[in-house]
């Protein structure tokens, strides 16, 4: 891969900050009435959790940019797609749009109930009413299936977590029933599938506890995070290596913490 010069990276970052500013986002939202184009999709950003800077980042294709580029380049419409951590549906829209002319489904798992309305709107408008399923659950392997697990939802969606209560009083704590990848495969009678995953470090639990389900995964687009398992800390680069070791999939492409694997 070509390494950009530090000076180029600096100016790129400055330009990005200008383009994705709150001012730019307000203008873009006004011009498009909160229906913001992003590649072949249109993202409904009317939910109050969308900040102006997020709206600008969506328009300029900077929001979840690596994940979207990877799925547009690599994701095939020959398998059902499971998306863990669907959030507001920006990435989900791209997946649903890719699957809309096939008979395949996207199954979205999102624990934050504040985001479900926007997720459904964006899935329906970009993929249709029939090719998606939304599960308001939390991926968790610490308790028996369908146990209630504490979830901490923030008005800043990037801060939501299942970990210990953050110090900020902007978090709302409520219970969400847990789910596992194996259960999703069983419930919806899925054999081979593609997986898109951004679950803020919980992927480490899945890697160690659900290898049977991962053995059926044919394509994996994942944003990795620094994580801890069995009192051992893993950097995101080590998590990427661990995925290859535990799943037998081949690492095809990587951009920072975002990686694409496929089974060959």
Any overview of this molecule?
- With 264 residues, this protein is α/β, with parallel strands linked by helices.
- It is built from 10 helices and 14 strands.
- The strands form 4 sheets. A 7-stranded mixed sheet has the order 5-4-3-9-10-14-13, covered by helices on one side. Strands 6-8-7 form a 3-stranded mixed sheet.
- Helix 6 (116-127) links the parallel strand 4 and strand 5.
- Helix 4 packs parallel to helix 5 (90-99) and helix 5 (90-99) runs parallel beside helix 6 (116-127).
- It is globular and about 50 Å long.
Summarize the structure.
This protein is of the alpha/beta class. It has helices spanning 6-19, 22-32, 52-59, 65-74, 90-99, 116-127, 181-187, 203-209, 211-214, 236-247, and strands at 35-38, 41-44, 80-84, 106-109, 132-135, 138-139, 148-154, 171-179, 193-197, 217-223, 227-229, 232-234, 250-255, 258-262.
Contiguous helical run count: 10
Strand content: 25-35%
Shape: globular
How many strands appear in the DSSP assignment? 14
Radius of gyration: 18 Å
Keywords:
single chain; 264 residues; alpha/beta; seven-stranded mixed β-sheet; three-stranded mixed β-sheet; 10 helices; 26% strand
